[in-house]
Design a protein that fits this description.
The structure is a homodimer of 455-residue chains. Helix content of chain A is 34%, strand content 20%. In chain A, the strands form three sheets. A seven-stranded antiparallel sheet of chain A has the order 13-10-12-11-15-16-14, sandwiched between helices. A five-stranded antiparallel sheet of chain A has the order 5-6-9-7-8. The radius of gyration of chain A is 22 Å and the shape is globular. Chain A contains 15 helices and 16 strands. Chain A is of the alpha+beta class. Chains A and B meet through strand 8, helix 7 and helix 15 of A and strand 8, helix 7 and helix 15 of B.
Chain lengths: 455, 455
């Protein structure tokens, strides 16, 4: 195979070095051991096509690799696959100011695109803690969401066109940045969120937004979870929110300890909400805050007086995931309908206290989107495999609860390797059968990210 | 077959009456003769499932029928199919105010949903001339767009969940109104725009928007088409447009004659733009107008001073399609990237004047979305088949031009029967092959709206 790869890639763009295999064959999950047979670094669409055709001819598997910030093992190469890194395809190919469309190669970092937009007085609104290293191709493959979905939607909403290579090695040029195009099945939307199992995203036309007005940030302390939902309702009457996040006091404790940050409020509260909104809505926000205080939905609050203070408040939320990493968290990423959230959380909390009495549990997430990140922390006395196995035994109970609410067992982290055996809790047998059919249609020889997503 | 249908539907919900067959077997295209074998009116999801299973068992074809306002023959039953009318599934099943989600049956009229939203102080923003009779199921099947896409997007952007019956008779419950759900291929987005060829949409969770601020309408007269694009650019700096439409003077003449309306401006101009925007942006809009006057992009303009006047200005644009109907127009519905629009229009205009020297041509459309409706009017001396055959001979030349710009041969009308032989101008052979594969996966026996969309 190495010889065959050498017909496509020069020596400096193929590696079999053990450290490289480990680096490019892993993502941020810790449960898997990377074991690819090689990593290649294409620079052109033609090279990607040649690679996929070779994989079909020689029957080897490909694993796409972006910023490898995924949390479900979607970019892990465990079984001798060839990893396709998009690190060398990180150029912005064009910009159309009239349409606010950027043509990116798949390896452009989210942060680089954000900076590109900002330099032009525009805004790329998809943002999350890993935006510095995550890549557009990976964002598309997982339909990345993050912290401003409540206002700006998901990656899907900003992709006006994409170029992909199917598992059969065919090039699809989807939609070309058109606003309206009613000419049959929309493969762009099918590829978005398909986790590299149907094809490799090589280029994308990304739409940019007008820049937001100056923003203000509030952190509010709440005594109960269902109060959070009332707070959301109170603010949504009259304030267009750019973010509505939440974290529990235990999550706050971790990020404060890791970064040596002061508490946002004088007295601790069990739950906190972080709100971001246009400065022009400050009066309406203040009125909503007063109403929340009167009804005791909120115990206390702080409003950013400067961008620097806003950034410090955001750090309390955005630093959580990183600050939990040393505790080897078992991550759940759940969503239910917003109106089901209080009941669901109550039931989930009861289940978890009973199933994990000895474990510390951190809740946080994008509560304005109905999205909860539930992190179970490994006690220092437990080995990682032992801890993971125990959590894995509890997961079906939790996912059963999610299914009762017709929720999602993976709101924004994707399915990958980590959750594929649980897919049936969010998708019916008929849907899984159709997914298999689609996979066969796009990738008849099964070379594209095998064993991911579909159980 | 009638006996078999009678096992599912009572006599008052099956008809074989000739007039009924003609009515429910047609849409707004005039090129086809309706010839279904029966029309049925399901009232429940279970009846739809039983019908699709029967169609598979007895090998008869189904044609979904919504408001039948389509312009591409997507809802025409030409060959003894059974028409599935959703007229009896027109109930709103539930409303979640916290999430602003309405659960609708497929047969709810667009206008009824708009009215439902308005009664609750909310807004369903997808709107077009046929919204009074078009149905949500049909909107989903064609991913309907219309007049406010520039601000609010397409039907796709408002569908948070849908329930469909596949061609195999399986029920898919897609997404349940979740904001975030990263659990594999998104069948909701695949079904949207699939023109009933994969399955029947039975219910949908539709998201509502906050109501817009009071709106103002401007009609501007332009001497040249490319000036329109400059006008768009000038207004987009500082004014959030709710609509940016255009029509040619010949289109205006038709609607004025049909409805006996006064001209919007003192002197006629070759092209007109209709803009709608928030009243709060009036100062910015006035400045943009001044700038356009100074640069001679605009010759004159009128600003609505009341809602009634705004409605009268809108009538000049929204009445066009209806006023052209007596002229048996041959309709094209094209889109290109906005920045390609001036060059494309110039080339298209040259081609058309040369190909149709004896025909009157009316241009209008959603120019802010890159979407042109090009209507060729039948001269009174020509028979309809003769006229249509001539236009059909010219279409490939026009579509070739669209393809050179990687545009769409059907921006929002769908493909149906009318354009399926031309699909290759917007979709590659590889894409068409994948479409066939998907069709087989969802509809193995080919019972769902056969002969539509896919050539």
């Amino acid at each position: 195979m190495t010889e065959a790869l050498a017909t496509i890639f020069p020596p400096n763009r193929i590696t079999r070095d053990a450290e490289d295999l480990d680096h490019w064959g892993s993502d941020r999950t810790t449960a898997y051991r990377a074991a690819p047979s090689a990593v290649v670094f294409p620079e052109t669409l033609d090279e990607v096509v040649a690679l996929v055709r070779l994989a079909n001819a020689r029957a080897f598997a490909l694993v796409p690799s972006g910023g490898r910030t995924g949390l479900s093992g979607g970019a892990v190469a465990e079984r001798g696959e060839v990893v396709v890194s998009f690190d060398r395809m990180n150029r912005i190919l064009g910009f159309d100011p009239a349409e606010r469309l950027v043509r990116c190669q798949a390896g452009v970092a989210t942060g680089a695109l954000q900076a590109f937009a900002e330099e032009r007085g525009l805004f790329y609104p998809v943002d999350f803690a890993a935006s510095g290293s995550s890549q557009i191709g990976g964002n598309i493959a997982t339909n990345a969401g993050g912290i401003r979905v409540i206002r700006y939607g998901l990656t899907r909403d900003w992709i006006a066109g994409l170029t992909a290579v199917t598992g059969a090695g065919d090039v699809l040029r989807c939609n070309n940045g058109l606003v309206k195009n009613a000419t049959g099945y929309d493969f762009r939307h099918l590829l978005i969120g398909s986790e590299g199992t149907l094809g490799l995203v090589v280029e994308a036309d990304v739409r940019l937004a007008n820049p937001p007005q100056p923003q203000r940030v509030m952190v509010l302390g709440c005594s109960a979870f269902d109060a959070l939902m009332h707070v959301l309702g109170a603010f949504q009457q009259g304030v267009t929110l750019s973010a509505f996040e939440f974290f529990s006091d235990s999550a706050l404790a971790k990020v404060r300890a890791a970064r040596d940050l002061p508490p946002p409020l004088r007295d601790a509260c069990p739950f906190y909400a972080l709100l971001e909104f246009d400065e022009s809505a400050l009066d309406a926000a203040s009125r909503a805050f007063e109403r929340c205080l009167e009804r005791s939905w909120v115990a206390d609050g702080v409003l950013s007086q400067s961008d620097a203070q806003a950034a410090r408040l955001w750090a309390l939320r955005e630093g959580i995931s990183e600050s939990l990493a040393p505790h080897t968290p078992y991550k759940n990423d759940l969503s239910v309908r917003l109106s089901d959230m209080p009941k669901f959380l109550e039931a989930a909390d009861a289940l978890i206290s009973q199933a994990y009495p000895e474990f510390e549990v951190c809740w946080y997430g994008h509560i304005g989107d109905g999205n909860l990140h539930l992190n179970i922390l490994k006690p220092s006395g437990w080995s990682e495999p032992e801890f993971r196995a125990h959590c894995h035994r509890v997961s079906p109970e939790l996912f059963k609860l999610v299914a009762e609410y017709s929720g999602s067992i993976s709101a924004e982290h994707g399915v990958g390797l980590l959750k594929r055996e649980f897919l049936g809790y969010s998708r019916s047998p008929e849907e899984v059968a159709l997914m298999r059919g689609l996979k066969r249609t796009f990738d008849p020889n099964g070379v594209m990210n095998p064993r991911k997503l579909i159980p």
